[in-house]
Design a protein that fits this description.
This protein has helices at 2-5, 33-44, 50-71, 78-97, 103-114, 133-148, 155-173, 178-195, 199-205, and strands at 8-15, 25-31. It is elongated. It starts with a helix and ends with a helix. A two-stranded parallel sheet has the order 1-2. By secondary structure, it is mostly helical. Helix 2 (33-44) runs antiparallel to helix 3 (50-71), helix 3 runs antiparallel to helix 4 (78-97) and helix 7 (155-173) crosses helix 8 (178-195). The model has no long low-confidence stretch (mean pLDDT 89). The protein has 2 domains: 32-124; 133-205, no CATH class.
Length: 206
């Protein structure tokens, strides 16, 4: 993960709860609500105990209230918004401190306690979402391409695929022609190599 993102992300990192992200430092982090809602639905299929239902109802209501506050933030005066945001932090703390006689509830409470500072980050920033869907959609084309082309056949091929798809998608987001942009980068790199002396040439001159 550090090889891809670096040890420090100079921004706000929106992720799921995969443990590898814990090793990455960032200015702030937001954990994805969609993955939490999916987890609740998954547990609902096998756990019908009253303690679980009570926990999941409280957590789902908290998440939905947080999303609703984020959507309507600009309709509220700053003082009201700050008060409601503080109330959500208080509700999250109370939920984490509540004891539930259910294994699934205890497991999710442990997760919430570990990431308690990363659950309501989006309420502090206009351009931050409580979902990481945007990032996953940016990868969708690369995943589909890999799927219909019968996967990469070698490690070098996988690396080349990753680099090219990253260049193409970056160009698209900047309003550039992806193929022309990649060709221009290649031509610039080749031109720099032909005009810059290699290490061996420098040693000969020395």
């Amino acid at each position: 993960m550090k090889q891809v993102l670096g040890a420090l992300v100079p921004g706000i990192l929106i992720t799921d709860f995969w443990g590898a992200y814990n090793a990455i430092a960032a200015l702030a982090k937001q954990r994805c609500y969609f993955h939490l809602f999916t987890e609740l639905l998954k547990v609902d299929k096998r756990n019908h105990r009253a303690p679980w239902k009570r926990f999941r109802k409280t957590l789902a209501r908290l998440l939905k209230d947080a999303i609703r506050l984020g959507v309507h933030r600009h309709e509220l005066d700053p003082r009201t918004y700050a008060r409601r945001k503080a109330k959500l932090h208080q509700r999250l703390a109370q939920l984490i401190d509540t004891s539930f006689d259910d294994a699934d509830a205890k497991r999710l409470i442990k997760r919430l306690r570990r990431h308690r500072q990363e659950m309501l980050t989006f309420l502090d920033h206009d351009q931050v979402s409580p979902y990481n869907n945007h990032g996953e959609q940016q990868m969708r084309m690369a995943v589909l391409t890999r799927k219909i082309s019968q996967q990469n056949r070698s490690e070098d091929g996988a690396k080349a695929h990753a680099i090219l798809m990253s260049l193409f998608r970056t160009a698209e987001l900047q309003g550039l022609n992806p193929v022309e942009h990649a060709l221009q980068l290649a031509q610039t790199t080749l031109a720099a190599r032909t005009t810059t002396p290699s290490n061996s040439e420098l040693k000969k001159v020395a």
